[in-house]
C-alpha cells in the first residue's frame, strides 16, 4: 500500500545518513517529494517540481476492503465516503497549487490529473512477458 503524506516544504531534500552505501534500496511515495530513491544509507529526494513531471492521482478506497464470500468486499474502519471525497479533493487542490507555483513545471506544461473518488475502477491486463506501463496525459 502506498500512503500519501502532505509535507510543508516540497523542495527540502534528504541528505546522506552515512558514507557507506548499502545494498538495500528503497522507493517511497508522497505528493510533494514524489519519490525517494537510493540506498538505505543515502536517500535522495526527487520532486516532480524539480524533474519537472506531471502527476496522476488515482483514489484507491478499495485498499481498505476485506474480501468476503462470493467475491464481495466489506469496508470496515474507513472514513465516511463524503470525508474521503473531501480529503482527496484537498490533496488534488494542494498538488495543483504547488504545480502552478513552480516556474519550471509551468514552463514545461506539466499538470495534475486525477480520477473520481468513489467510482468503480477496473483494469484487465494479459501479458506473457514482463510488463511496463507508460502513462502520458
From TrEMBL:
Transmembrane regions: none
Any idea what this protein is called? D-aminoacyl-tRNA deacylase
Superkingdom, natural source: Eukaryota
Which GO MF terms does the UniProt record name? D-aminoacyl-tRNA deacylase activity
InterPro entries linked to this entry: Daa-tRNA_deacyls_DTD, DTD-like_sf
Q: Which GO terms describe its cellular component?
A: cytoplasm
EC number, UniProt record: 3.1.1.96
Reactions catalysed, semicolon-separated, are:
a D-aminoacyl-tRNA + H2O = a tRNA + a D-alpha-amino acid + H(+); glycyl-tRNA(Ala) + H2O = tRNA(Ala) + glycine + H(+)
- To which species is this protein native? Xiphophorus couchianus
Amino acid at each position: 500500500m502506498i500512503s500519501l503524506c502532505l509535507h510543508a516544504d516540497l523542495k527540502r531534500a534528504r541528505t546522506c545518513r552515512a558514507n557507506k552505501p548499502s545494498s538495500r534500496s528503497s522507493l517511497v511515495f508522497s505528493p510533494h517529494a514524489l519519490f525517494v530513491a537510493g540506498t538505505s544509507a543515502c536517500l535522495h529526494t526527487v520532486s516532480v517540481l524539480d524533474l519537472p513531471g506531471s502527476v496522476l492521482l488515482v483514489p484507491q478506497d478499495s485498499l481498505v476492503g476485506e474480501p468476503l464470500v462470493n467475491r464481495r468486499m466489506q469496508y470496515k474502519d474507513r472514513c465516511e465516503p463524503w470525508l474521503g471525497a473531501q480529503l482527496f479533493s484537498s490533496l488534488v487542490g494542494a498538488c495543483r497549487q504547488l504545480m502552478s507555483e513552480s516556474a519550471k513545471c509551468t514552463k514545461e506544461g506539466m499538470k495534475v490529473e486525477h480520477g473520481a473518488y468513489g467510482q468503480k475502477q477496473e483494469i484487465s491486463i494479459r501479458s506473457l512477458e514482463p510488463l511496463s506501463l507508460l502513462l502520458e496525459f
